[in-house]
Sequence to fold (402 residues):
Amino acid sequence: MITQTNQRIIIIEPSTIVFAGLQSIIERMHIAESIYHVTELDTITQKLAQLRADIIIVNTAVFGFHKNLSIKSIFKDCTHASIIAFVSQYSDSQFLKQFDDIIDIYDDAQTISAKIRHIIEQDTIDITETDTTELSEREQEVLIAVVKGLINKEIASTLNISIHTVMSHRKNITRKTGIKSISGLTVYALFNNLIKQEDVQ
Amino acid sequence: MITQTNQRIIIIEPSTIVFAGLQSIIERMHIAESIYHVTELDTITQKLAQLRADIIIVNTAVFGFHKNLSIKSIFKDCTHASIIAFVSQYSDSQFLKQFDDIIDIYDDAQTISAKIRHIIEQDTIDITETDTTELSEREQEVLIAVVKGLINKEIASTLNISIHTVMSHRKNITRKTGIKSISGLTVYALFNNLIKQEDVQ
DNA sequence: TGTTGACTCACTATAACTAGTGATGAGGCT
DNA sequence: AGCCTCATCACTAGTTATAGTGAGTCAACA
Fold:
């Protein structure tokens, strides 16, 4: 699989915290050459072209309540950049249609990564298959239950299947991931955002 | 100046992005031993005491519109934790007075760092009882081995004790922490910095 | 149409863990 | 001296998990 690791990204976001969060998530993707922070729209419009960004993520809040704006014209100098809306509060759905994609403040890291990857892949010709999920849906369900601390019998009853099936799934999970221990599976599940820390135990 | 580098911090914040931002800013301060993410209030209240946090940062949005809540009573099990409000939208100022400090979503990194440092310094003055670790040294060793994925027999041989002793320790660990599942112990060990993620499995 | 993968279930035998009780010696604290 | 914790070990009985093999149904796909 060919990955692009030289993306130039601009984030237009008033809040330092939110910027830091997006930055941190994007950095973990190892696709960005640079991440540029802009807090206001006005100060940047002329310089945008200069920065030659590949991706611009813009908090729709910076547009204020003037929702009749044309995104195309605002970013007219960035012809080859993909513009992603970042929505942290209600935004008009017609307005949002102008963007290449939308990231919601409540999206999880996996979703955000997927959206950005998708944008990059659209721009890149050589898309080879993206990581298909290693585990089947049912296997993920079983894994989540295991990590929640349920024993096989309990998993069987919550999923309405026989304990034999549960064991069968668990054997397949072990085979596919190569992880034998519950603690290892816990880290795997946390890392892959299959479960939240507070749901464990 | 004595700096505290072993703060256990819980962030109660629905948005992954905002959490990642706070995490990233706090990590740069090098004061946190662990940063725990919780997305909802309901799922965590009973477990809060167990986690023995020093600082709890809570997005006031999780309280919804019921602003007559007593913060003291919600966090009654965390007597020694400082509670910081994280405000991302309008919040009643009377309500906010209950908190030890307030972080606003538009605060810059420097301001946030200063606020957190201030909280820590206040606390370090009135440390009378050093929060001795809940688990004995031997129990910690056993716990780490468990979380590494070793089975009791293996733990026995690496620690040069009988398998009976290992089980004895494990029983005590379960009794003291109240955590029965290996996955729960894994989260506990990660949060309490007893083990690094990469050492698991 | 034949293959593959997902999902389901079963049987066997062995290994490992859990829970409860009990015991001993070392060391610290009051 | 008495009390407590830690660390060590043991026995019992019951529960749960692991490993290996096998097999049927169903849907997708080439």
Observations:
- Residues 151-153, 167, 170-171, 174, 180 of chain A lie near DNA strand D (CB under 10 Å from a C1').
- Chain A touches chain B at residues 14-25, 89, 105-109, 112, 146-149, 179-188, 190-191, 196-201 (CB under 8 Å).
- Residues 125-132 of chain A have pLDDT under 50 and may be disordered.
- The first helix of chain A runs from residue 16 to 29.
